[in-house]
Amino acid sequence: MFENQQRDDVEALMKADAEFRRLYQHHRELDSKVHDADIGVLPIDDVTLASMKKEKLLAKARLERMWQSRAHLIH
Fold first, then answer.
1. Which of 4, 12, 36, 53 can pair with 74 through a Cys bridge, CB separation 3.0 to 4.6 Å?
2. How far apart are CA 21 and CA 11, in angstroms?
3. Predicted TM-score of the model (pTM)
4. pLDDT recorded at residue 53
C-alpha cells in the first residue's frame, strides 16, 4: 500500500497522525494474517477469512481517504 508514495512521506504522516499510524499497523497485521491463511500457515475457517479480508479492504479504503486529506500535513 502507498507504493507510489515516498516511504519518508508515509512515515512522516504516521508520526504526525496517531489514528493513521494505528490504522496502518492494523492493516499490516490483517494483511499478514490473510496471507498466512491463504498459504495454509494459519488455519482459519472461510467465514473468518472472508471477514478479515473485508476488514482489511475497509481499512485500506479509510487509509487512502486519510492520505488524501492529510498528506499536506507532512510538507
1. 12
2. 9
3. 0.83
4. 96
